[in-house]
Amino acid sequence: MCIAILNTAGTIKQKTFKHCWDNNPDGGGIAYAKDGKIKIVKELKSWKELYKQYIFIRTENPGANILLHFRIATHGKINEVNCHPFKVSNTLAFIHNG
Predict the structure, then answer these.
(1) pLDDT by residue (tens digit) across 1-31?
(2) What is residue 44's predicted lDDT score, i.e. its pLDDT?
(3) SS (H, E, C) 29-93
(4) Which residues, at least 6 apart from 70, have a Cβ–Cβ distance to it below 8 Å?
(5) 61: number of CA atoms within 13 Å, CB side?
(6) Per-residue pLDDT for 98 more than 80?
(7) Of 36, 39, 55, 93, which residue has the fewest beta carbons closer than 10 angstroms?
(8) How many CB atoms lie within 10 A of CB 41?
(9) Positive/negative CA dihedral, 15, 17, 20, 26
């Protein structure tokens, strides 16, 4: 199963982040709101790159709620299109598990 996280406070430790990626290695993504709009970051190859982006986002937006998703592909190609989060509109994104 995929790993879906709502990070409301604090910073996820690098070891935990890597563990999530290692167990769900088919891509990861981040969604958060900035200036009233949803921003999404996706990464398919490097947990370190995704973590770097996460730390930047958390540092620049310390009070933000952040959605994180680590994918294990059960259906569909391993590509950015199938990687979560999915943007619905400028104010709504979602992740799911199965």
Answers:
(1) 899 999 999 999 999 999 999 999 999 999 9
(2) 96
(3) EEEEEECCEEEEEEECCCHHHHHHHHHHHHHHCCCCCEEEEECCCCCCCCCCCCCCCEEEECCEE
(4) 2, 3, 20, 21, 23, 24, 27, 28
(5) 18
(6) no
(7) 36
(8) 17
(9) negative
DSSP secondary structure code for residue 16 in this structure: H
Q: Computed over its alpha carbons, how large is the radius of gyration of the chain?
A: 12
Distance, in Å, from the CA atom of 4 to the CA atom of 79, rounded to the nearest integer, reads 18
Contact 26, 93 (CB under 8 A): no
Cα separation, 14 vs 9, whole angstroms: 15
Query: Token pair 């995929």 is at which residue?
Result: 2
75-90 pLDDT per residue, tens: 899 989 899 999 999 9
